[in-house]
């Protein structure tokens, strides 16, 4: 799985760089605008280690933000499934908050909390929590009638047991949604770093953009792809292992 995922990423990355170089040749652009392969390799050799450390920094924040978003989305979905006004209010508030673009909310967070770890965590969580919330709402609101009827008939049904039954019945869906939303956490962290942070690969990309250094950006994109691919493979394996453990032999 790991080898296949990395190979697929390299194919896509090299295809993208190849198209960029063809564009450079067709328009006869200078190396200052679009660097050649030699310049990209030289930049990778010089800045590869520093950029790899920055990617690890970003990935660590993204993982924490992703975990935070999972707990936040699960909590909101459990409350929002209620039929009274509290559930309706929570659902409406969650949907309305998502209607604001993160680039409009991020400056407020940076002003209130600074440009440190907390702000990057919150932005990462805010970007990836909404798809999680929608999926959790659908799963937690869909009855598993055959199993739930037994517990309701015997008077043993509680809201915790109901959530557990519905979650176990939809483990494959939950695993797919959690893995898919992990990429959004990475995107959210990079966006936060690009806007105003002072660490991480997004910060490095911002500096390279100010310097008009496309070679550095391409190296950063390569390392981001590798780091994200490794994290997704690990997350998929953890999800499969958890699913097998919960389902039993």
Polypeptide structure, described:
The chain has a single domain (47-247), classed as MetI-like fold (Orthogonal Bundle). Helix content is 84%, strand content 0%. The longest helix is centred in the first third of the chain and has 44 residues, at 37-80. Helix 5 runs antiparallel to helix 8 (171-195). It is elongated, with a radius of gyration of 22 Å. The protein is an all-alpha fold and 249 residues long. It has helices at 2-27, 37-80, 85-98, 102-113, 117-141, 145-153, 159-169, 171-195, 201-210, 214-247.
Structural class: mainly alpha
- The number of distinct helices, counting runs of at least 4 residues, comes to 10
What sort of overall outline do the alpha carbons produce when their principal axes are compared?
elongated
CATH architecture: Orthogonal Bundle
Order of helices and strands: HHHHHHHHHH
Mean pLDDT: 83
Q: Beta-strand level of the residues, as a percent range?
A: under 5%
The number of domains = 1
Radius of gyration: 22 Å
N-C termini distance:
23 Å
CATH fold-level name: MetI-like fold
CATH superfamily: MetI-like
- The CATH class assignment is Mainly Alpha
Largest sheet geometry: none
Number of strands: 0
Q: List low-pLDDT spans.
A: none
Helicity range of the residues?
over 70%
């Amino acid at each position: 799985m790991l080898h296949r995922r990395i190979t697929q990423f390299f194919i896509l990355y090299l295809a993208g760089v190849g198209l960029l170089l063809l564009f450079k040749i067709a328009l006869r652009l200078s190396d200052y605008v679009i660097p050649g392969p030699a310049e990209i390799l030289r930049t990778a050799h010089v800045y590869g280690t520093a950029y790899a450390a920055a990617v690890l920094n970003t990935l660590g924040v993204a993982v924490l933000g992703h975990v935070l978003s999972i707990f936040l989305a699960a909590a909101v979905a459990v409350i929002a499934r209620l039929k009274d006004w509290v559930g309706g209010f929570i659902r409406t508030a969650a949907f309305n908050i998502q209607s604001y673009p993160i680039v409009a909310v991020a400056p407020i967070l940076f002003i209130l909390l600074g440009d440190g770890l907390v702000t990057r965590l919150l932005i990462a969580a805010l970007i990836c929590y909404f798809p999680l919330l929608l999926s959790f709402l659908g799963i937690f609101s869909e009855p598993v009638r055959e199993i739930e009827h037994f517990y309701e008939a015997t008077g043993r049904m509680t809201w915790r047991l109901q959530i557990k039954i519905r979650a176990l019945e939809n483990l494959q869906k939950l695993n797919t949604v959690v893995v898919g939303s992990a990429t959004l956490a990475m995107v959210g962290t990079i966006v936060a770093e690009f806007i105003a942070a002072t660490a991480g690969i997004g910060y490095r990309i911002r500096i390279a953009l100010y310097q008009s250094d496309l070679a550095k950006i391409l190296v950063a994109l390569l390392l981001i792809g590798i780091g994200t691919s490794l994290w997704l493979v690990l997350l998929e394996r953890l999800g499969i292992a958890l699913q097998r453990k919960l389902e039993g032999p």
